[in-house]
Amino acid sequence: MKFRISALMREEIFKAGDFFNCTHQAMLWINQLTMIQIKNFLLHFALVAMLLTLAGCAAQSANHGFPAKGFGSAKLSKQTPDKPENAFFFYTESQFRKNKGDLEGALAALKSAMEKDPDSLYLKRELVQIYWQKKDPAGAMTVLKELLAQDPDDLENLILYARINHMAKNMDEAKSAYEKVLVKEPENKGIYLLLGGIYTDEGNLEFAVQIYQKLIRQFPDYFAGFFVMAQTQAALGKYSKAEEYYIQSLELEPALDDARYELIDLYKLHGTNQEDTVIEVRAGDTIGGLSLKVYGKFDPSIEKSIARANPSIRKISRIHVGQSILFPGFNGKDEKATGSDKEEKIRYYYNQILENTPEDIRAAMGLAYYEYESGNFVESETILKRLGKRSEAEPDIVDIVVRYYMEERNYDAAIVILEGMTKGALDKSELEYITALAYHGKEDKFHALGSLMRIGSDSKFFEKAVEYVNYLYAQDENTVEAIDYLARAVEARPENSNFRIYLGKLYEETGEYDKAEAILEKGMENDPENPKLYFMMGVICDKAGKREEAVRMMIKVLEISPEDATALNYLGYTYADMGKNLDEALFLVEKAMRLKPNDGYVTDSLGWVYYKMGDYDKAYEVLNKAIQLVPDDPTIMEHLGDVYLKKNDSEKALEFYRQALEHETENQGKINRKIQEILDAGK
Predict the structure, then answer these.
(1) Phi and psi at residue 255, in whole multiples of 5°?
(2) Which fold, 277-328?
(3) In angstroms, rounded to a whole number, what is the distance separating the alpha carbons of residues 459 and 331?
(4) Residue 446 burial class via C-beta count within 10 angstroms: exposed 0-12, middle 13-18, buried 19 and up
């Protein structure tokens, strides 16, 4: 269940213990907290909390976290020349080692401290923490059981026991321990939150409600109790109750903007006049027919509302048997009044957030998109233009679009917001690039390309845009338009070697080797130490039948980059295929194998070198490994066929040649000739 938490709510979770003892639900809340909401004082609080021990925090002084009075039965004695190795000495060493990340050393030092002070509760609790940090829950639990056996009524030990079980996901033990804590200490607000969080994580929302009801009864002025109760009621589909609890949490804590966000989402998705209805689709059901049953009517606005309430369903008109559809609640008899009231509340809470925190970008975006959806395009554009103007100086603005819209795959909203911001920005390139990502997310490549092509050659995003355009064209195999675009990119940025390599690759695909060579030669003049240019030129020359020139290019690559496994493999294979420099070929491919030991293509090259050297047993062994790594490669299949033929196993050779023929698209003639030769020889 995905709940948010505000800075204020985060502080309440910390008060429950320390950072490591938050529930899984609390961690979800914390992960969703925007950086805008995290105040400096709270970050400091979190940092300190992370450095405190799991228990006994109150017993520590401000003096570097050392115990204020003593470890247990022994009083604190500082190091003295005649007693240099007392409990304090070893405890200090343990803390030093722990802070350095040496947990084994910290554990050894702490055990030495315990030998000096075996009855110390404090040291035993510290030992629990060390075991936990070492990812040794069994060790932590052993010490905890000793503590509880020593004093079953000790509240700190019981809380620590609950926390460790909670973090170890021993939820039944954790729940039982938390419940015992509440019996002993019913005024501990944090324990209610932790226990309710467990029930929420488990999906036992009714049990969570019972816990939060106790919390609210015990602390009727505690805003956090009303907030978590509201979230739980919303998760149960009881939206009117959720609304009431959110409003009560705001009355108790007006700064709780996350309650306002929750209310906004509540009104957008559900309204509060009627509870939502969840229906499992049966054979013959349609959205229109089900809407008639739920609302008594069906129209485009209702279909749109259902689509919003079910974001995981791509096309709400296409539903299938067994699917659960959420029909958002509203009063169909008074739909107009309800809609108006809902819109008023949504705007009210957005504006409240912006009044409290004018720099809250998320609220501004949310309001702008809501106005857009409501048909108030001028109001929406005004807000977004303002954000676009600010976006160059405030990178958080674009980050928030990504976090709240792109990552949630709400591409329609992202596009509206980004295109609106683009109208107000001086430098539009970053916004255009993110807009292209959003269109691509919608599988709308046409508009994605449009956004990318509006990014000028003077932009720092131009290189990324060119790479992206090249990728999109490659997906559709639209080589002609890709060549046209990349030729213009090379003209605009002649010094960019990557553009030349992309264009050379495209010319290779169209068989225009002369054009590819011309583009790459100019690149090598401008960028003579770039091995990628020489490698691409080598590939082009090989395809054009200029093998000696290809070899020269690969040698140049290795002069610049001796550990280039691809070039080592390419040159070694080429030598083997040409039947020359076989010892050198073996050296090159073996070096490539050391760099890429599990690469099927390099393994194939090694097998082919052995084949050319006449060592058919080794070739057979290596090529069989290659076919396991790349089972569908026709070249490896053909090579295995060649080996079997040399080993006088014509039947197996035919089997692999025929397999190669099924997968090969270019060299079918050569393989067919080999098959025919075997068949002719058998006549």
Answers:
(1) -85, 0
(2) Membrane-bound Lytic Murein Transglycosylase D; Chain A (3.10.350)
(3) 52
(4) exposed
Report which DSSP code applies to 76: P
Distance CA 488, CA 531 (A): 24
Phi, psi of 326 (to 5 degrees): -95, 120
Q: Is 65 left (phi over 0), alpha (psi -120 to 50) or beta?
A: left
- CB contact at 8 A, 533 and 501: yes
Nearest by Cα to 236 from 191, 280, 270: 270
Residue position matching structure tokens 């069994």: 138
Find, among 181, 180, 241, the residue nearest to 216 by Cα: 241
CB 447 within 8 A of CB 416: no
**CB proximity list for 459: less than 8 A, separation 6 or greater:** 427, 429, 465
Q: Is 283 left (phi over 0), alpha (psi -120 to 50) or beta?
A: beta
Phi first, then psi: what are they for 60, rounded to 5°?
A: -95, 140
* Closest to 520 measured CA to CA, from 530, 493, 473, 545: 530
Tokens, residue 431: 């916004």
SS3 321: coil
Element (H, E) at 327: strand 324-327
- Model confidence, pTM: 0.66
> For 26, what's the count of Cα atoms within 13 Å in the CB-facing half-sphere?
29
Nearest Cα to Cα of residue 585 among 612, 552, 547: 612
DSSP string covering 515-578 = HHHHHHHHHHHH-TT-HHHHHHHHHHHHHTT-HHHHHHHHHHHHHH-TT-HHHHHHHHHHHHHH
Annotation: CATH topology of 7-212 = 1.25.40
The tokens 């039982």 sit on which residue?
176
Residues 652, 653, 657: CA angle, nearest 5 degrees: 120
CA 266 to the chain's CA centroid: 27
pLDDT higher at 299 or 59: 299
**Distant-in-sequence, close-in-space partners of 634: CB < 8 Å, separation ≥ 6:** 659, 660, 661, 662, 663, 664, 667, 671
3-state secondary structure of 533: helix
Write down the domain spans for the chain. Answer: 7-212, 277-328
Per-residue model confidence as pLDDT tens digits over 526-552:
999 999 999 999 999 999 999 999 999
CB 65 within 8 A of CB 95: yes
Question: Measured at the alpha carbon of residue 93, what is the angle toward residues 145 and 69, in degrees to the nearest 5?
Answer: 65
CB-based contacts of 207-213 (< 8 A; 24+ apart in sequence):
208/232, 209/233, 209/236
pLDDT one-digit tens code per residue, 340-356: 578 889 999 999 999 98
Encoded tokens for 677: 């030769």
The CA distance from 275 to 330, in Å, is 7
Q: What is the DSSP string of 17-44?
A: S-GGG--HHHHHHHHH--GGG--HHHHH
pLDDT (tens digit per residue) in 419-435:
999 999 999 999 999 99
